[in-house]
Design goal:
Blueprint lengths: L5 E3 L9 E9 L8 E7 L11 E2 L11 E9 L2 E9 L9 E7 L10 E8 L5 E6 L8 E10 L2 E11 L2 H8 L8 H19 L95 H18 L1 H8 L8 E6 L14 E7 L2 E9 L8 H14 L3 E6 L23 E6 H15 L4 H15 L15 H9 L8 H25 L3 E3 L9 H15 L1 E8 L6 E6 L4 E9 L6 H11 L8 E6 L4 E6 H4 L15 E11 L11 H15 L8 H16 L1
Parallel strand pairs: 14-15, 15-16
Antiparallel strand pairs: 1-11, 2-6, 2-8, 3-4, 3-7, 5-6, 7-10, 8-9, 10-11, 12-13, 13-14, 17-18, 18-19, 19-20, 20-23, 21-22, 21-23
Helix pairs in contact: 2-14, 3-4, 3-7, 4-6, 6-7, 6-9, 9-10
Length: 703
C-alpha cells in the first residue's frame, strides 16, 4: 500500500473477524528498537478514557479486543505483533490507531525497513505498508483500522510526531499530568547516585531515598526496591521503556493508564519447607511419577496444558491470540474421535472458543521428548479441519519452528473457500509465557497464579518430556569431525542442518533468559532487506565450513550493547562477549577505572579489550591483572581515540549433541546465563539514554 491508501478488510479475506497486525523494522547496528501502542478512538477522534490506551505496561483489553503479543524475530530484525478481535471491539469505538515510539533522542530515521503488515485469522498476509519517510521523529502512526458500512477498513497513515509519544497521546485526548517537581527530584536522585558511584565531582553529595516514583514497567523503583504500599499514582501516558530501571528526566511527567487492582505474582524464592527431610515430596496437582512411556507423556502433557488454558484466560489468550482465536468462553478436550476415511482420527486435543454465538476451533497435535511430527498425521488433521469448518491445526513439540523452514510439509487445497491455518508452538514458548505471567506481569487472582505455577513445575520436571529443543541432530557429530579434519566442503547439507539447529537453540536461549529476567531478549538477524531466510542460512552454513564457527547475537533490554555468542568447533571453546561504548565525556583513565570498579564482582578470568578507532586491536588483559592497574587498558601512544571496551568470557564447549550435562546445548545455555548474571548486570545503562537524561535534566533546571 501507499501512504494515504485504504482498503476494506472484507475485500481481502473472508476471515477477518480477528487480525494480527505486525510492526517491524531493522537496525543496522542490531540495537535499534521501539515500543508499540494502540489507541481506541470514538466518533470524535478521542479516547473514551485513559483505559483506551494500550502499551507495554497495559497490554491487554479486558474484553479481548486488543492484545499486545510482544516481539518475535524476523529475517532482518524483529516484529512487534498485536492481536485484534474486531468482533469484540466496543460499539463506541470508531477507529483504532496503531503507533510506535522510540526512547531518548532516537528517531525512526535510524531504522531500516519500517513497515506494518496485516494478516487474517488464518495467518495469511493481507497487506503491507512501508513507512519510508519517518525521519528523525520519535513516534509514528503506522496505520489505523476504522469502521465503514458495518465492516472494517485499514488506512496506511505513516504520520510522524516530533513530540514523541506524549504529543501523540495528547492529540487523541489522553490526559497528561504535570508532575515536573517529582520528576525533577527523581532525576536529581538518579544523577546524584550515578555521580557518587562513579566518584565524580569530588563532592560529598547525598542521594535522597524513598521518592516513591514508579520508574520501571514491572512496578519497581529506580533502585530496584518494591513500590511503597498504598495507592501509587500510575501514569496515563508512559515514558518510553527504561529497562535499566532508572528515572529519565523529562520536562513533564506523562501519566500511564490507571490500572485495575494489583495483579498477583509469585515470589522467585521458595518459602521454607515444613518437611522433616528432603525425602518428603511436595504434593503436586500434576504428578509425573507414573509416566512410563512417550504416549503417557503426550497424553498427560496435552491434558495438563489444555485444562490450565481453559481455567486461566490470561494464559490462554497469550497462546491463542497469535493464532487468530477470539476472546471468549473456552473449552478444551482430549482424545476426540473424528471421522476420516475408513478409520477415525484422534487428535491429542481440541480447543473451542465461543463468542457471540460463533465457534472457533483448533485441533492440537502434541509430541514430547525428541519425537518428531509425522507429516501424514498433520495432513490428515488439516483435511479434517477443512471439511468440518475448523479454523486451525496447532502442533506442539520440543522443536522450534524457523521462518521459511516449516517443521512439516502439508498440502493445502486452494480450491476450498474455507482456509485452515497451521501453527506451531514449542514447549519452551509455553513455559516462557507461564513464567512471564507468574513471575513478572501478574494475573488476576492467586488461584490462577498457583495453577500456572503447577503447570510450570510439571513442564520443567525431568520426566515430563517437555524440555524444549534438546538435540542438535544427527549431523552434529559428522560436521564437527569434518571441521576438525578439514574435510567439510561448502554446500554440504549437513552444515545447513547444524546452522538451522543453532538458530533454534539461540531462540530457545532467548526465551529462557527472557523468562528469568522479565525482559525482552531477541536474537539479532543481520541481513539485507528482503533476504530469503533459506539463502541467509545457506550462506552461514558455507561460512561454518570455512572457519568452523557458529555465531549469534542477542539483544537484551537495558544492556549497553548486543551480547554475542560464538562456538568455535575447531578449538571446542564458547565465547560470550559484549561491547561497551566509551562515554561521551571524561578522560580515558577515568573510563578504565570506572569500568574495572563496576566489574568488581565479575569473574577474574573475564577478558577486557580496549577498542580503538581504526587502529587495530588495543590493549587487553584479564580482569584479575587489570584490577590493580586499570591504566594498562590505555594505548601507549595516548593519542588514539578509544571507542569502547570489549568484555569476553570463555568456557569449554559441550561435545554431545543432546541436552545432557556434557552436551552442547546445556553448555551454551549455561554460558549465556553465567555471562549475563556475572558480567552484564554490573554494567551501566545504555549511554544514549544516560545522555538524554542529563540533557533533559539540564533543560528542566534551566526552565
Amino acid at each position: 500500500m501507499v501512504k494515504g491508501a485504504n482498503v476494506a478488510l472484507a475485500d481481502l479475506s473472508d476471515d477477518v473477524g480477528s487480525v494480527i497486525v505486525s510492526l517491524g523494522w531493522a537496525s543496522p547496528t542490531g540495537e535499534g528498537d521501539a515500543d508499540v501502542s494502540v489507541l481506541l478512538l470514538d466518533v470524535n477522534g478521542k479516547v473514551r478514557s485513559d483505559g483506551d490506551f494500550y502499551f507495554y505496561n497495559h497490554p491487554v483489553a479486558a474484553d479481548g479486543s486488543v492484545q499486545l503479543l510482544g516481539k518475535t524475530p524476523a529475517a532482518d530484525g524483529s516484529e512487534d505483533r498485536i492481536s485484534f478481535d474486531l468482533t469484540a471491539v466496543p460499539g463506541g469505538v470508531e477507529r483504532i490507531v496503531v503507533a510506535a515510539s522510540r526512547y531518548g533522542d532516537a528517531g525512526f530515521g535510524e531504522l531500516d525497513d519500517v513497515r506494518i503488515t496485516l494478516a487474517d485469522a488464518a495467518g495469511e498476509p493481507l497487506l503491507r505498508f512501508a513507512v519510508d519517510d519517518a525521519g528523525a521523529v520519535a513516534a509514528v502512526i503506522f496505520g489505523e483500522l476504522y469502521r465503514r458500512g458495518g465492516g472494517w477498513k485499514f488506512r496506511a497513515v505513516g504520520q510522524g510526531y516530533a513530540t514523541g509519544l506524549a504529543g501523540l497521546a495528547t492529540d487523541f485526548g489522553v490526559d497528561i499530568e504535570d508532575d515536573a517537581a517529582a520528576e525533577a527530584q527523581a532525576d536529581a536522585d538518579a544523577e546524584a547516585g550515578a555521580e557518587a558511584e562513579a566518584g565524580a565531582g569530588g563532592g560529598a553529595g547525598t542521594v535522597a531515598a524513598g521518592s516513591g516514583v514508579l520508574a520501571g514497567p514491572e512496578g519497581q523503583s529506580g533502585a530496584g526496591a518494591p513500590v511503597p504500599a498504598g495507592p501509587v499514582p500510575v501514569d496515563a501516558v508512559p515514558a518510553p521503556r527504561r529497562p535499566d530501571g532508572q528515572a529519565e528526566a523529562v520536562k513533564k511527567r506523562a501519566a500511564r493508564p490507571r490500572t485495575a487492582k494489583k495483579k498477583v505474582t509469585l515470589p522467585a524464592t521458595v518459602k521454607k519447607t515444613l518437611a522433616e527431610n528432603d525425602s518428603w515430596k511436595t504434593a503436586r496437582l500434576f504428578p509425573v511419577s507414573a509416566l512410563k512411556s512417550d504416549r503417557d507423556r503426550e497424553m498427560r502433557a496435552t491434558s495438563v496444558l489444555l485444562s490450565v488454558m481453559a481455567q486461566v484466560p490470561e494464559f490462554s489468550r497469550r497462546l491463542t491470540a497469535a493464532f487468530g482465536a477470539p476472546a471468549g468462553r473456552m473449552e478444551t478436550f482430549t482424545e476426540v474421535s473424528l471421522p476420516h476415511g475408513d478409520s477415525p482420527r484422534r487428535p491429542d486435543g481440541v480447543i473451542r472458543v465461543e463468542r457471540a454465538g460463533k465457534l472457533w476451533t483448533a485441533l492440537v497435535e502434541t509430541k514430547t521428548n525428541g519425537n518428531a511430527l509425522k507429516a501424514e498425521q498433520v495432513q490428515a488433521y488439516m483435511d479434517i479441519a477443512a471439511r468440518r469448518g475448523y479454523e486451525a491445526v496447532i502442533t506442539l513439540t520440543n522443536d522450534v519452528a524457523l521462518e521459511g523452514s516449516p517443521l512439516v510439509d502439508v498440502k493445502i487445497d486452494r480450491r476450498r473457500k474455507h482456509k485452515v491455518a497451521l501453527w506451531h508452538l514449542s514447549w519452551a514458548e509455553v513455559a516462557h509465557q507461564a513464567q512471564m505471567l507468574i513471575r513478572h506481569e501478574g494475573l488476576g487472582n492467586a488461584a490462577h497464579a498457583w495453577l500456572l505455577q503447577e503447570l510450570l513445575h510439571y513442564l520443567q520436571h525431568e520426566n515430563s518430556g517437555c524440555h524444549g529443543f534438546q538435540n542438535m541432530g544427527p549431523s552434529w557429530v559428522p560436521v564437527r569431525n569434518g571441521i576438525d579434519d578439514e574435510t567439510l566442503c561448502q554446500g554440504d547439507a549437513r552444515a545447513l542442518e547444524v546452522v538451522e539447529n543453532w538458530e533454534r537453540l539461540i531462540r530457545q536461549v532467548c526465551l529462557r533468559l527472557g523468562g528469568e529476567l522479565g525482559q525482552k531478549v531477541l536474537p539479532v538477524q543481520r541481513a539485507r532487506r528482503g533476504t530469503d531466510p533459506k539463502e541467509r542460512r545457506e550462506r552461514l552454513a558455507d561460512q561454518l565450513c570455512l572457519d568452523g564457527r557458529l555465531q549469534a547475537e542477542l539483544r537484551i533490554d537495558g544492556t549497553p550493547g548486543v551480547l554475542t555468542v560464538g562456538a568455535d568447533l575447531r578449538t571446542g571453546k564458547l565465547r560470550t562477549a559484549i561491547d561497551v561504548p566509551a562515554p561521551d565525556q571524561g578522560y580515558p583513565l577515568s573510563w578504565a577505572k570506572r569500568l574495572v570498579r563496576r566489574l568488581e564482582q565479575a569473574p577474574a578470568d573475564l577478558h577486557v579489550e580496549t577498542l580503538l578507532d581504526g587502529a587495530g586491536p588495543g590493549p587487553r588483559g584479564t580482569l584479575e591483572r587489570l584490577r590493580p592497574e586499570p591504566a594498562d587498558l590505555l594505548p601507549k601512544d595516548g593519542a588514539t581515540q578509544i571507542t569502547g571496551f570489549r568484555l569476553s568470557l570463555f568456557k569449554g564447549m559441550g561435545s554431545g549433541r543432546g541436552n545432557a550435562e556434557t552436551g552442547f546445548i546445556r553448555s551454551v545455555d549455561d554460558a549465556v546465563h553465567r555471562f549475563y548474571t556475572t558480567v552484564v548486570v554490573h554494567l551501566d545503562a545504555p549511554a544514549g539514554r544516560r545522555r538524554a537524561a542529563r540533557q533533559n535534566a539540564a533543560a528542566s533546571a534551566s526552565g
